[in-house]
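Example (one chain per record):
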Amino acid sequence: MLDSASTMSSLQTKNIEAVWRQLSIPVVYRPPDKGEILLKLPFSKNNYEWIKSNNQRKPKWLNQFKCWQLPRSWFNKVVEDTLTKHKKLYIIQPYREQEKCAPACWNAEGHECQCSCMGANHGAGNSDGHWFIVSDTFATTWRQRELACRLLEVKP
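Predicted structure:
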């Protein structure tokens, strides 16, 4: 019999795989530590031109994954541009369960979030009054890094 932690991990993996396989909402994958990001978009004849836009480097098509491989440094711009065009975007990225949220997260700029809030409080600018603030950052022991998936949507 599986313990609850491995069951949750298995369910999370199936959810991430389902998000990656769907074709209607764009998905960006930011791998742990290093490596290029992957971007899956709904089909359009001009996806290459749209991704390349004013960038000097060329996007690379990965046929085995049916996605674009892009420089990691493009992450924030890809998120912003994709949300502007498609109004929704899944982000699959690493997180660590034992990280604590703190003002450093609430006041962050950009979309790269690795704390346990999984982006729920990221860049929100306040703590909603239910956090005990120790400092701008908070040290803790981290568990093994896992992947999390979140959906960003442009509010009307």
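Caption: The chain has two domains: 1-96+144-156, 99-140.
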